[in-house]
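Example (one chain per record):
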Amino acid sequence: MKKALPIMALFIPKQINIPNRRYDLDWLRVIVFGLLIFYHTGMLYVANWGYHIKSQYLSEGLANVMLLLSPWRMAVLWLISGIAIRFVLVKVPLLQFIGLRSIRLLLPLLFAILVIIPPQLYYEMTFNGDLNLSYWQFYKAFFVNDHELFINYQPGIWPHIDVNHLWYLRELWQYSLFLVPLLPLLNSRFIEKLTNKLFSLNAVVAILLVVMPIFIIQLSMESDQHRNALGFICLIYGYLIGWHPVFWQRVTEHYKKLLIISLVLYLSLITFYNLVWLGADENTNKVLLVAGNFLYSLDRVLWVLAVMGLASRYLNKPSKQLSYLSDAVYPYYIVHQTIIIAVGFELSRFSLGIALEGVLVLLISFAACIASFEIIRRVELLRVLFGVQLKHSYSPNIKKAGYFIAAVIIIPFGLEILL
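Predicted structure:
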């Protein structure tokens, strides 16, 4: 009779065929977060797409460039996040994983909500003509619950207080918790057989099977709802493929084909966007809109496969630059949108033209992100508040005190997000 496995063993991935650290995923994470600076700068100028503020110079054609990134940029991050969770759970006990992840995600998120994000609302309200105060006057009012100043700006975690561009941190924490009860199933022999079967199929069939859940979600849910569902399913996809050698072998071998097909899909997508989606109304053929949603879903999946194959082929190697940039990812991510909005608003006063203004927004934003990180990485408390690993070692008692203080701060915040 076989000895029963401890219940906690069901939550741990099988420790076989564990690959070495995938530096290509680290590079890809850095690159995709870096592209956010370009993407959110573009949001200042793209016509027909909502954003906190807009430049006086708007371009309809810019949407075609934005659609090169829009379908797949977050899907890649969720896939990488799922892969990373699988790696971590092999090394770290489940409860420790939940505790450390909560501190690393929720503490920076709470700090950013109260300190980094408020300028975005200040500039948005000023841009809309709803505010004529100094920032200090605004910031004092910001912490007054039900202040009449924010009567038209209510949605958020608390009235007029929200995560804005940092929704990824909130969702990553939530998804990490939601994933826990699914781990016995995801680690089961049954799911392992299904995954192996998927990778034994013809590539076209396998891709279509992966696309269909994404397509159904996109077709059947509202924008905010399907964003959350798509993130979670991509996280699960990442968890399942994290160690699968056939997946990495196939995307690496066929990255050129994947890139060519992805480019064709992109050209098809922007054609559909300009000819159908821009002018869509209640009279637009529903079958045509369904076809467009399928095209978007297929484009999303193929680009994810293409960029992962490309990264696997050329970027799977360590470097000093990668170590530096990996630490910089969260600080850049946390501060970049506030900087872009502030710089974009202030530069709009000078009527510089779209080219000069756009280039200056990018250059100043990157420079400010670099300067911010250089300060953050030198101050231990700031490292904690921006999700960067501590630089120095501390005694067990100091660590326990730090964890206790962090728990006292984040537990009420975490409950607020979940409930």
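Caption: The mean pLDDT is 92.
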